[in-house]
Write a structure and sequence with these properties.
mainly alpha
Length: 379
């Protein structure tokens, strides 16, 4: 639904500051770790200078190879950038310096969960919270796992424990809000998000979930405000960008939606949903060839993708008037749904209209000796 927050720890003494960064230490010269945290804890700077942060953290590990904080933050950055193998390597190097570093142990256990090794991952996380009840990385990982399994009460239990120890922990607030949101308890989800934003107004993930709450409450103006606020706080927040683009697409703001989906596709080029959404925006801009290529690409990425078949049906019936192509994709789509599907009646009308059009054109061809529509090639 929404991505988590990247907050580099810097020195362990700064943990309680959450999003606000490191304690000032005017009597000491800044270290590479301090410089990296100063950039990374500002999402606007991080979006433009992630490579600088990586360089500083690598420098930190070279200068102080036994400093677990250097390795931990390097792992956080690489995980944030999608390099899970690099993150795991950094965290393991950190454990060689301090084998009892609980945040690192929790991050590696979370990777076990993500890799499908639930038994080992859960045991490691449970061992951590048995030793340290409010340990945030372990509790947040357990909450995220509970959410993935639909265990809303379990997610809330872990989130509340984190917030008892760290009231400004954005991931715990986010996990609690998601748990309520997924149950349809939108008022409670919104209350958690808005209460946290009063303390941390630049918490992008909480703006994003609050935007989703407002969408469920049919308040598109407030939803738009919070998606924009999320992107202002963190220009790299992909979920907020996608949510805003989808909202703009629904209101026919095709140019802005096209731009945002293009930006999202740069980060996730093989995501069939983004490819499809960009194609819909292209169709709205009357770029029909581009739209067709996008729909077909979405089908390559996700074979038998119903939404792609439906949009190809609509494209060729309503816009390109390539009737045999329309018939092929409409027939394929209607075979995927049953009579209880909300689009079933629409599709029956479409296929009937297409069949009638083809029949008339073929009769005209026979009568006048003119070429009829060109049949679509067999796949």
């Amino acid at each position: 639904m929404t991505r988590r927050t990247l907050t580099l720890r810097g020195r362990a003494t700064a943990l309680a500051l959450g999003l606000t960064g490191l304690l000032a230490a005017p009597a000491m010269a800044a270290t590479p770790l301090d410089d990296a945290a100063a950039i990374a804890n500002d999402p606007v700077q991080l979006a433009a200078r992630a490579a600088d942060v990586d360089r500083l953290l690598v420098q930190c590990t070279q200068q102080a190879p036994n400093d677990v904080d250097c390795w931990y933050d390097l792992g956080l950055l690489r995980s944030h950038r999608g390099d899970l193998r690099g993150a795991a390597e950094a965290w393991r190097r950190g454990l060689a310096a301090d084998g009892k570093h609980l945040p690192t142990l929790a991050r590696l256990a979370a990777l076990e969960l993500r890799g499908g090794n639930a038994e080992a991952g859960l045991k490691a996380l449970e061992d951590i919270i048995a030793e340290s009840r409010f340990q945030p990385e372990a509790r947040n990982a357990l909450a995220a796992y509970a959410l993935s399994k639909g265990d809303w009460d379990g997610a809330l239990k872990h989130a509340r424990n984190v917030l008892l120890g760290d009231p400004r922990n954005p991931d715990a607030a986010l996990n609690a809000a998601i748990a309520y949101f997924e149950q349809g308890l939108y008022d409670q989800a919104g209350l958690i998000a808005s209460s946290f934003l009063e303390k941390e107004p630049k918490a992008a993930p909480l703006h994003n979930i609050l935007g989703l709450v407002y969408l469920k409450q049919d308040n598109t103006r407030k939803a738009t405000e919070h998606f924009l606020a999320a992107l202002e706080a963190d220009p790299g927040h992909a979920d907020a960008r996608l949510n805003l683009a989808a909202l703009e697409l629904g209101f026919g703001n095709f140019e802005s939606a096209y731009r945002r989906f293009t930006e999202a596709l740069a980060d996730r080029p093989n995501d069939p949903d983004i490819v499809l959404s960009l194609a819909v925006a292209a169709r709205g801009l009357e770029r029909y060839d581009e739209a067709e290529k996008g729909y077909l690409k979405a089908l390559e990425l996700r074979p038998r993708f119903p939404d792609a078949e439906y949009n190809l049906c609509v494209l060729h019936q309503q816009f390109t008037e390539r009737w045999y192509d329309a018939k092929k994709h409409c027939d394929t789509y209607i075979a995927m749904i049953d009579d209880k599907h909300p689009k079933f009646r629409e599709m029956k009308k479409r296929t009937k209209s297409i069949d009638t059009t083809i029949m008339v054109l073929e009769r005209t061809k026979k009568t006048e000796g003119q070429p009829g529509p060109t049949p679509a090639p067999n796949p």
